[in-house]
Fold each of these.
Amino acid sequence: MITHKKLPNGFAYIEIKNSAAEAKIALQGAHLFHYARVGEEPILWLSEVSDFELGKAIRGGVPICWPWFGFNEDRTLPQHGFARVSLWEFVCSDESDEKRTTLTFRLTHNKKTLQMWHYKFELELHVTISDKLTMELKTTNIDDKEFEITQALHTYFKVSHISNVSVKGFNKNPYLDALTYKNKVQDGDITFNQEVDRVYQEVDGIIVLKDKKREISINNDGSSSVVVWNPWIEKTLRMSAMKKDAYENMLCIESANAFDDVRVVKPQKSHTLKATIF
């Protein structure tokens, strides 16, 4: 079942419920901010004090960073691009399977986007809600010149406590430590006892987030880079829309095309970034 809803301030979102799972997706940013399998705790973390207002990014869930990841060279432009605070069009849904619901959202260039990024494009997000969560972000170049994109499905995972967590799937992978801007190589599993902000490259295979009582697997296509981030104590205190202890119960593992994994999309061609969480 798909239900269109609005908050008292007019903020619009779609609620999805089927026999396998439930989810909520905001029209602003096509931002998935809730996903849980039936009878289980939510897989996604959402800040208890996040803004649900037009023009402000939601803190948590799966923000879409596009057409650039991180800061633009022009620091007057929004961090992580404009897609996550743009209003998307809800195109269609498929509810033909009681255990599986697929929704399609679309964003295209307009006068405002062309002022920030001088290309014509069509961006589609296909989200499938079942006992697995699948997100496919398809960029199509409808301009007459090629363009480059960096991007991420900036997924916030809910964890019991960050001290209980380890992440498998990056052993021997090179990464950029964004805190020191030094290139390093991962040795073994990732564990957390301080701030972590890393962009892993040459990632191929399933990533496993191990928590105290559950494991979550992530498989990416159209991507060889993954961002792993937890802001820890001091940075959380300075961040908007997060409680001071929020870092304890969240971990970002972001399916990405970032840094060395930049993608060039030629005219009339497409690139799809796909993440499957199970």
Amino acid sequence: MKKLLELYISFFKIGALTFGGGLAMLPMLKRELVDTQGWVTEEEILDMYAIGQCTPGIIAVNTATYVGYRQAGFVGGVFATFGMISPSLIIICLIASILQNFLHIPAVLHALAGIRIVVCALMLQTVVTMTRKGIHDRFGVFLFLAAFILACFSPVPTAVIIILSAIAGIIAKKVGRRKAS
């Protein structure tokens, strides 16, 4: 029961203290799951994020379900998932009932704009950290730049870019092994 409570509280904190969706949650997920709890490694976070991009659903919820399941089975997955979504449900209900009354106030508009800027900065910091961990050679740099250009400047869906990158990585690894033999 202690592990279930830890899962719920950890994911409740992540869900409650993070604005901006899945990408914005990455720094908080890394800090809580890797640094604080030690439930997963940085490489596993990268893998979960990549898989989360390709699977239906919200990245943070998929991650919560996966980590919860790994830590405490099916019930752990349920507790972690519920911990992740509980703050959103509470906050959305509260905001929906009162925000309309305050949107005309400049301070509220500025606060929301400030939150967006901080979320962007946190996302950039996470990208830089994860890039350092994920790129190991020239091919990695090439693949990163190609994926970045496709994601930013083409209508190709993110899931397709991830799948193509995975295929390219597999092919590169096999070609590298053949050259080494």
